[in-house]
Amino acid sequence: MFKLKKDGKEAALKEALERVQTLKEIPELQRFEVVSNSKDAPESNYEISLIFDFNSIQDLNSYQKDPRHVAFGDFIKTVRTDRACIDYEF
User: Fold this and answer.
1) Confidence band (pLDDT; 50, 70, 90) for 90?
2) Whole-angstrom Cα distance, residue 53 to residue 50?
3) In this predicted model, what pLDDT tens digit does every residue of 22-47 receive, in sequence order?
4) What is the arithmetic mean of pLDDT over 64-71?
5) Of 1, 26, 31, 48, which sits with the fewest C-beta atoms within 10 Å of its C-beta?
6) Residue 41 has what DSSP assignment?
7) Which residues contact 16 (CB under 8 A, 6 or more apart)?
8) What global pTM score does this model have?
């Protein structure tokens, strides 16, 4: 999940939602879901969440090194204030 900077938030959200689509093509990714916070929700909420499934922790590790993921990460770092993440196995 990402909390975006207040300055330019709408433009940053729009660009993030466009850029994240490139991650769909990463072969290790089994489930791709991207959600954004409702405009009527509290401002303290995070603005965007990526919900992805992988078959294994090794696939997750490969995904994290993929150039498309790295490029998205480089972009999101410039427009976010906070990040929250959890990786779990089931």
Assistant:
1) confident
2) 10
3) 999 999 999 999 999 998 999 899 99
4) 98
5) 31
6) S
7) 2, 4, 48, 75, 76, 79
8) 0.92
Quick check: 16 and 56 in contact, CB under 8 A? no
Higher pLDDT, 65 or 90: 65
| Amino acid making up residue 25 | E
The Cα–Cα gap between 47 and 66 comes to: 24
CA distances from residue 6 to 3, 23, 40, 72 in whole angstroms, order as listed: 9, 25, 16, 20
Residue whose entry in the numeric block shows the structure tokens 């791709």: 32
CA distance 60 to 72: 15
DSSP label at residue 40: T
Spell out the residues 6+ positions from residue 51 whose beta carbon is closer than 8 angstroms to its own. Answer: 31, 33, 34, 35
Evaluate whether 4 touches 80 at the Cβ level (below 8 Å): yes
Q: Which amino acid is at 36?
A: S
